């Protein structure tokens, strides 16, 4: 194809010369037309060859047939020229014959390397030449034919040699190109492999170090420097030393392992610590391989490292956690177990298994979870309580009854949760069994004790209440009866509502807390409050014994025991009343008078107020008593006492000191006229008209008034002054009042005590 691309030009030149041979003949135009047609054919062949050579994939198999067609067409074209354009001149004929011989030889250039293609072009041409020689009239035709045959034979021989030469050349070229291509591909593959290796070294998590053991040349991947925290590779390559970077505790071990690998070929697989750029030590996992020469000596050592610091930390935490978990499992008194989906036990905690059930773990593993149930804990009871966990729902604190190895009954609480496989199917069950046998026994004992206590609680004659955080949590019937309410009314009722006043309850709390510090109970006498709607509206006195229980300050708990002492208090009050009051009139007697008078006078002194002490004696009472008898006299005294009490203020004090004599104490008066007015009211209240025989008698009263502080600084002095003034009233004619000191002649308020002034 390459020779045929340009050789067409020579054939065109020969065609032009062939046409010029007929310059003087009349066939010149036809010859040149033929020459033009041949030139087009030759140009077409050149263009076809150029197109085939331009195809990157090379000539196709069909191109050989097309190329052979071009050879045959050229041969036929020249044969037609020899037949159609014969020169009459012998010289011109020989020139024409010589040109066609040149064409036959010239065909060796484009077609000689492929003899069949050359023959396809030469045979038509040779046929035309034989025909033209036979039809010509030139001398020595036989000699020309012999010369022509010899020349064609030489041309054939030359074509054969050319074919062989080109074939060998092409074979060598193809082999050379193939070798070059193979070498180029191998080089490309090597470069690609090196690039891929470099990318792989940069991409993988491991850092790679390559050391030439003989020359000491070193190579480190980018990842190797990143693991050690270096950013300046030049400084790293200059200063880094593997042996010096090893942790002191690991150095001897690692260097010995590397030496054993290089000298003996022992595997190099180690985990150790190396120092990074920041001076800290990190854990790495290293693997090493070596390249060896024909003698088996290591010439290169390649080592990869992976940062396993986080893994080592996680492993340390995992080991610590596992150690703690095992310690927890061994220390817990509860049995920890697992079973598969069929209920077969796969794991138990050994210590609890031996301590609770009396079995060794190997004696339990593989048995069904129901194998330890007591006879009274039937399969139906088991299914009702535990089947839900085998259906994927957890159970918590479910009680079961089981047996130990020696046949003892065991009460346990079981909590179990299911675990699932990746497909969401039940994989196993994890559970905990806690021995509550002792707790159950204590519960039974406690239930008996509580039942007995409840009987005592309900049967007790005293009221009992348990108070928590200031509220009644429970109370017995005796307390409800004492208050006149139902037991339900007391439930969750504030305890302060039981007592008469909130101050009483606060005092109870203070004294009870103080006693609790000494580990004692506190006793109180307290008036209980009668709630609205209670059966009795009168108050109840109770002896209250209180004790703090527990030590929870935020929810203080107390037990209150209340004993009804109302009859006792009533007797005490009656005795006190009898000891301090006049038996006939019910008025305070001299003893109570003196006690209250001193208190009231001290109050008047503090408040700088006037006070008055009056002594009243009935006029004519002896005559009435003698005329009507003592019973009538006693009735009169009661009537007079009642009228005089009604004439006084609530806080004034009226006392009978004996016979028909009364003492009145006015703790606060504004002036002397106020005291006189009260005295006149008392005289009027004591006055009464009576018929004694045939005559009408009038009973009245004489009053003596002593004013504090003018007439005395104490009650005894005032009483003496008032008594003297009362006698003065009797001497003056009775039925009147007289002041111990004359208001006109003496000052109302003396200089002593200082600061006192009249109101």
List keywords for this structure.
single chain; 759 residues; alpha+beta; Beta-Lactamase; 5 domains; six-stranded mixed β-sheet; five-stranded antiparallel β-sheet; 52% helix; 21% strand; disordered C terminus
Provide the fold topology.
Blueprint: H1 2-6, H2 8-20, H3 28-54, H4 62-84, H5 90-106, H6 108-111, H7 115-135, H8 141-203, E1 207-212, E2 218-220, H9 222-227, H10 233-239, H11 242-245, H12 248-264, E3 268-275, E4 281-292, E5 298-307, H13 309-331, E6 335-340, E7 345-348, H14 350-357, H15 361-364, H16 379-386, E8 395-403, E9 409-420, E10 426-435, H17 437-459, E11 463-468, E12 471-475, H18 477-483, H19 487-490, H20 502-517, E13 522-528, E14 540-549, E15 557-564, H21 566-580, H22 590-607, E16 610-619, H23 621-628, H24 630-647, E17 653-658, E18 661-669, H25 672-686, E19 688-692, E20 695-708, H26 715-731, E21 737-739
Parallel strand pairs: 20-21
Antiparallel strand pairs: 1-2, 1-5, 3-4, 4-5, 6-7, 6-10, 8-9, 9-10, 11-12, 11-15, 13-14, 14-15, 16-18, 16-20, 17-18, 19-20
